[in-house]
Amino acid sequence: MDNFTTISASGFCGESNDAVFVSLQPTAEIFVYSVRKRNFTSLPPFSHDLSRTAKYMSSSRSYLFVLDDAGAIHYRHNLRDGLSYFTNGSQPRRTSSEWATLSQIPTSNAISLAISNTSLWVITSEHKLYWMDVSQIETSDMNSWIEVDKPRGSESDKINQVRVSSTGKYVWIFVSQTGLCWARIDVSESHRQGRAWAQASSDVQISDLAVAENAVWCLSNNENELHRLRGLCLNNPAGHYWKPMRNCLKAISVDAFENRLWALDEENRIVKHEMQIYPPTCLPQANRLVSVSKASENYRTNDLMQEEKCSVDNLYKADELDRISLDPLQSWCLLSNSTEDHEEESEPVISTSCEENSLQELRYTSSLKPNSSSSYLYSSYLYL
SUPFAM superfamilies annotated for this entry (predicted)? Predict the structure, then answer.
């Protein structure tokens, strides 16, 4: 059975580049999943040593980086120009974009990496953090790397993971053993490596992170439960607290197209996060909405508008703003769980009719049902 271990969706930036990369164990193969065509094709091996396995992958608009189990960094360039060869349903052909090895790194071994459209971040086996401008990747030497200061404290000496958003404005580091994490402060166009660190909430011990332009997601250390950061903004990149999302996943990543969460679930399937919005007239009348106190009314309204980017005025009347639900409905739908050839299936259709059973049509294969606190705004995960 196919066993996906890592996923990178940050190279997915539009219809012309709709690739989501997954690695397969124990064969160390890397597959390109085409979101539009909904099929898999295999990339050529990233190393001549076929015993090497992909420990982690990170992608951007133009690059795919692979960190292997020996600490070597491999990459491909010009992905936008060459991806048509890998997502057309046929076997991939060789292009001008071949695998290359990033040999000029500060030490011989890397333990983590992250690539954005503007910067490359690497953590070495000595737990040191380095930064490089992407324009210098092809001609990099030792002088291209800039060492970045670490947070103060003994725990920061153990940092072993780095994550970055697609534009590079959010940078996070964490210690996978203890789950402590930090966000970079004052990242700007003129100072892309930032100026300081802010420690994030430690109420969740983090095992994995996915950083988008408008959200930060994490998996907990003990049960791989999904959480979302609340209060994220440029002035507060570390946010306030982690909100549990009641789902357990193996690995997570976000795309650069819609900042959408992609993941590998515990049943070895590729899943993605979706958000569905229903006007009040489409809700079952039997559902009771949870009231929110007047004191927290403005906070909840602003919270939804900022994080889900929807206009509350289009969904509610002025006297209905205090009826926003605290717990959105969670559901899942399948993307794919096999790299074997398959016929292209039609896209699922979500009903928007204003009938009482419209919410049931959203569930697909989910066993979760609408509860008494159902909201106008529904968060769901699609297995397409």
Answer: YVTN repeat-like/Quinoprotein amine dehydrogenase (SSF50969)
